[in-house]
Amino acid sequence: MFINRSAKNNLVNQALIKESNLKTLFNLIHNREPVFRAELAGLTDLSPTTISSLVDELIQRNFVISKGTSNTKSPGRKPIMLEINAKGAYIAAFGWGRSGLKYFLYDLKCNVVEHSIIAINGLDSFAKTIYDTITNTTFRKIAKRKLLAVCISIPGLIDSSNHILESYVLGLKENKYVIAELMELFPSTPIIIGNESVFYTYAEKEFGCSKNVNNLFYANISDGVGAGMILNGKIYKGGTGMAGEFGHNTIDMNGPECECGSHGCLENYISLPSIVNMYSQHAQNMLLPPANNIDEVFVAYANNNPAAVETIRKVAQILACALCNVINLLNIDRVVIGGGMRNFGQPFLDELDKYMRPRAEHNKIIKRCPITFSTLDQSAPCLGAVKYFLDNIMKISVDLEKNLFLY
Ligand SMILES: [Zn+2]
What we know:
Blueprint: H1 5-32, E1 35-36, H2 37-43, H3 48-60, E2 64-69, E3 80-84, E4 90-97, E5 100-107, E6 112-118, H4 126-141, E7 147-154, E8 157-159, E9 164-167, E10 172-175, H5 177-185, E11 191-195, H6 196-207, E12 216-221, E13 225-231, E14 234-235, H7 267-270, H8 272-285, H9 294-302, H10 306-330, E15 334-338, H11 345-361, H12 364-367, E16 371-373, H13 380-393, E17 404-406
Helix pairs in contact: 1-3, 2-3, 4-5, 6-13, 8-10, 9-10, 10-11
This protein binds zinc ion.
């Protein structure tokens, strides 16, 4: 049968509208389950008939299941509740760190159904390790077609225009091969790779104490100092996807040279290794033993060791200055601090507050911006990546236009 161009365009448009409606319903069910059809009609502009037909399709595609009836007291037949079908599909997520790979397999409800820690023998074997893990363990439990995507979080920068990875922590220098090899090994599975701070931030927004915060700044303070930002409700990635280099804000233009080429960068004062060095200098001046690692500084601070107290006072002063710059520049609604820095506990936040409060007295933007620790655990970047995929990338009834997504 001959179909003219305008009829063909019409069919394409109808398919796209249907996909958009299916995805809207999927997201609503994911975020509000259990729900019933009439509730969905109230939350969208769609007619009850359209909702019913789209929900049937979601059920038929195994993304949604009907389960039990509502407890509503209204007379008549009780409506059937809809839920996401946890076992309908799965997403693999890998958190790449200095000590190897953390692997989590998530079901469609974002529950972890498989977890392991995997060593990596050099950068050359990275993509192959991911491929082998999925092939040898995951595909023995679930059918290949049920794996929707592979998500990878890295503590580094991703040049999304040129497919280049850069990470001081992982020893990646202008690395083009990891992404190329992953694409070769997974030619038809969507691959999502992003900076761990970006995914931490999304997890914080979706699962942490920052739900419904539209302008969120997440400072990830560990071996390095990174940040993720949600601005106007959306992840902010910048021109080439490399925004968030909080650690390379200049704190002292006459300070020591940083590996980024600049001088006096924040990271050289408040990253955990820098805190160990600062502590050891104070300890030496006070005729106390130096610290061998950050755990010793955590213990010393908890015990009110004077070198630790002085170190953390200085760190809080510097961080307050850096955070005020960010809050003023972007009118941030909330700051969340994550990473190993959380081990200094509430006394650190109290110390930080001492340096924020005088500024807040004269500045409403700072006064209205609470600063808290993240309450999420180390799996948060993987969880954030998976939820980001489900919310923003996954399609229900049409194919994705590409299978590589970089953040
Ligand atoms: Zn720097």
